[in-house]
Write a structure and sequence with these properties.
With 271 residues, this protein is of the alpha/beta class. It contains eight helices and ten strands. A five-stranded parallel sheet has the order 3-2-4-1-5, sandwiched between helices. Strands 6-7-10-8-9 form a five-stranded mixed sheet, sandwiched between helices.
């Protein structure tokens, strides 16, 4: 009887947004564990931002590290073929029995390539084990760098791609105290116009390539109008004027019990 094929584990290693000092001890350990490295690129033989984070941390790139191409396009057919190729190649390598560590900028569970890759790989071979190592997200790093508090006590906070458009952003400004607008590059001018209309320019900040050596922070957000910004850019927008609804505090069961006790007391003890 032949033994079942042994597959390696697929590991998504979150590296943080750009500063190698933000790589977790778990991710750092896996990078040096002997697992084969995979890293994403937009085009074949193009530089990888995720790989550059590790290189700045002082780790040498293994000779057998391999790139996987994930093109920047909205063409569904092109994307489907690219995902299929990446997943099939990943399964082939895992079939050698060696673990694979996939390098992820930011956090692997937040708008990352890894989640989709892992899902397709498991569809091809359900028994493949997958591990996701959490990391520092771009918006968390940007908040720390700029001294922005994302939420305090009962405040609300939302993270959305700016591509949903200014109408959605305008609506969410009434629902949340702080917005992290990711991938703002295509809509910078429209977002600035909206913030100006709502008198929120002073409580907004723009961050480009958070944590990287060429990081840029712009607090005079209006000055960016007409400028072509980097793809790795986001805005943190706070709405201190937001009208909040009434909060329901405490434990529902405890509140219900107190109400019941009060009703019993009123029935037993005559007025």
């Amino acid at each position: 009887m032949t033994e079942p094929k042994r597959y390696g584990k697929l590991i998504g290693a979150s590296l943080g947004p750009g500063d190698p000092e933000l790589i977790t001890r778990r991710a750092w350990s896996v990078l040096q564990s002997g697992a084969r490295w995979l890293y994403p690129v937009k085009k074949a033989e193009e530089s990888s931002y995720a790989l550059s984070i590790v290189e700045r941390g002082g780790l040498a790139v293994p000779a057998d590290a391999e790139e996987l191409v994930f093109p920047m396009t909205r063409d569904a057919e092109i994307l489907a073929k690219a995902w299929a190729r990446a997943a099939v190649r990943t399964v082939e390598l895992l079939g050698e029995g060696r673990d694979l560590v996939f390098l992820v900028e930011g956090d692997a569970s937040t708008f990352a390539t890894f989640g989709h890759l892992a899902r397709v790989v498991r569809e091809l071979v359900p028994e493949i084990a997958v591990e996701t190592i959490p990391g520092v997200s771009s918006f968390a790093a940007a908040a720390a760098i700029t001294g922005t508090t994302l939420a305090e006590e009962d405040e609300t906070f939302a993270i959305i791609p700016a591509a949903y458009g200014v109408e959605v952003i305008d609506h969410l400004l009434d629902e949340f105290d702080t917005l992290a607008l990711l991938k703002v590059k295509p809509l910078v001018d429209e977002v600035i116009d909206l913030l100006e209309q709502r008198d929120l320019l002073a409580s907004s900040v723009f961050i480009e390539k958070a944590g990287a050596p060429d990081q840029r922070i712009v607090r005079d957000v209006a000055s960016l109008k007409g400028e072509k910004v980097n793809y790795l850019s986001l805005m943190l927008v706070q709405n201190p004027k937001r009208v909040r609804g009434e909060l329901r505090r405490g434990c529902r069961k405890r509140q219900a019990a107190k109400t019941e006790e009060s009703a019993i007391s009123e029935a037993v003890i005559p007025a």
